[in-house]
Write a structure and sequence with these properties.
Blueprint (H helix, E strand, L loop, with lengths): L2 E5 L6 E5 L8 H14 L1 E4 L6 H11 L2 E2 L7 E2 L2 E7 L10 H4 L18 E8 L7 E5 H6 L3 H7 L3 E4 L1 H5 L11 H5 L5 E4 L1 E3 L5 E3 L5 E4 L4 H15 L5 E4 L6 E5 L3 E5 L9 E7 L8
Parallel strand pairs: 2-3
Antiparallel strand pairs: 1-2, 3-15, 4-17, 5-6, 6-17, 7-15, 7-17, 8-14, 8-16, 9-10, 9-13, 11-12
């Protein structure tokens, strides 16, 4: 097996290359990829051109896989492959995708551990817009001054889908707006997630509505500052998609968002998810 990793930025991202494409499907590759995802947050496999079957094979090997979204826009050959698109013929409720224009983490409002990783294949790349940005909340937390780290310890934020979709609530058809905004659970999570290995990241993004025990304006201002801190160039990465690109990122230690694009571009991504092994813990 010969897989190579080249750092993209100091604190986030590695570009993956291989001597033989089959190396990526070798049993030992899954362990190497999973460890590198945890270390570097985002892995980019340029123009790998995976089929759904191959993407599921990699997902299962690193896995186990999980189904994050129960919806109609899934591939007919496997319901665990979710089609990320604004095409209403495929996705009858595009507001879920519109919500991805804002910083978020996957699976924060469901009653299970958040997914360890998200895997995305580009099937149609837009000419304009549609890039995906990633921000490492591991690196962002590590870079905070010590007094700010101490100030965050013990704080909890309230997360909901309603909060995450509030920027685009007016774009949701009124006839089913309340139903869409009310999906998922309202969850309290610590701002600082202490992982089983002792590393710490932040649980932030647009699902975070307010901070428990803090005045609403002050709490929301703190949450916004933390987003801005994590999104600074030192801790973030923007990926310009080409058809066939494949990206894996550590969902437990990163926010992500899509740069807005028009539905006429036909942008299409195929997403799979790897189950998380640990709940958010203080």
């Amino acid at each position: 097996m010969a897989i190579h990793f080249e750092n993209i930025k100091e604190h986030i991202g590695s570009r993956v290359s291989w001597d033989d494409r089959s190396d990526l499907f070798a049993p030992e590759a899954a362990k190497a990829i999973r460890e590198k995802v945890a270390e570097r947050t985002v892995l980019v496999f340029p123009e790998l051109n995976l089929t759904d079957e191959e993407q599921l094979a990699i997902t299962n090997a690193i896995g186990p896989k999980m189904r994050l979204t129960n919806t109609t826009n899934v591939q007919s050959n496997d319901e665990d492959v979710y089609q990320v698109t604004l095409d209403e013929k495929i996705n009858p409720q595009p507001e879920y995708v519109l919500g991805t224009f804002f910083w978020h983490m996957d699976g924060i409002t469901v009653d299970m551990p958040p997914p360890f990783a998200t895997l995305l294949s580009c099937r149609i790349a837009p000419d304009k817009g549609g890039e995906t940005e990633f921000a490492s909340t591991y690196a962002a937390y590590a870079g905070l001054p010590e007094d700010e780290k101490q100030a965050l310890e013990g704080l909890k934020a309230v997360h909901s889908v309603r909060a995450s979709l509030s920027p685009i609530a007016d774009a949701i058809p009124e006839k089913h707006r309340e139903r869409v905004l009310g999906i998922g659970l309202v969850k309290e999570h610590p701002l600082v997630w202490t992982h089983d290995d002792g590393r710490k990241s932040m649980v932030i993004g647009t699902t975070a509505d307010h901070i428990v025990g803090m005045d609403i304006p002050a709490g929301r201002a703190m949450l916004m500052r933390l987003q801005e801190w994590a999104a600074q160039p030192a801790y973030s990465l923007r990926h310009k998609w080409k058809k066939g690109d494949f990206v894996i990122w550590d969902n437990t230690g990163a926010m992500h968002r899509a740069i807005p694009y028009d539905k006429s571009t036909g942008r299409m991504m195929h997403r799979t998810s790897i189950a998380g092994a640990e709940a958010v813990a203080a």
